[in-house]
Amino acid sequence: MRYLHQQQVVHRDLAARNVLVFKDDWVKITDFGLSRQVESDYYMLQTRRGLPLLWTAPEVKDDNRFYKESDVWSYGVTLWEVFSDGTDPIIQHDGDPSGSGTMLANHTAFLRHGERLPNIDGCAERVYALMQRCWQWDKHMRPTFPQIVDEVSQWRGALLGER
What we know:
Structural class: alpha+beta
Strand content: 5-15%
Radius of gyration: 16 Å
Number of domains: 1
Distance between the termini: 29 Å
Largest sheet: 2 strands, antiparallel
Order of helices and strands: HEEEEEHEHHHH
């Protein structure tokens, strides 16, 4: 994702279903059907057809503009999917009488009120903290992919040093 953003490309569909594990520490991003080259800071959506709503950042839903920071939001959701063993990223809400989290029409409203996906059993706090930073409502408060790569590289270095 860092490389794509350096090339001024937004993926617009980053999700676990579009990530292939090539080797233990090497993954490949796939499905570039929604990807677009950005000439300014954003890509203006032409249609919402096929938009993956549960992975979509609030600014896309609000103003139809997809930014690099919108991919960062999706990365946080994708990371959550990985640690939840592929669970659908539906926010459970106390107001959902079925308890199934199917109130998708209110998904953006839940996000606006600060609700986010919960931490997953077994997920390290620092990983969940990264997810939460990716889900900042203000896109300018989200980390960039170079910052994410640096942070995750530091974790890996620390883990290797513990062996």
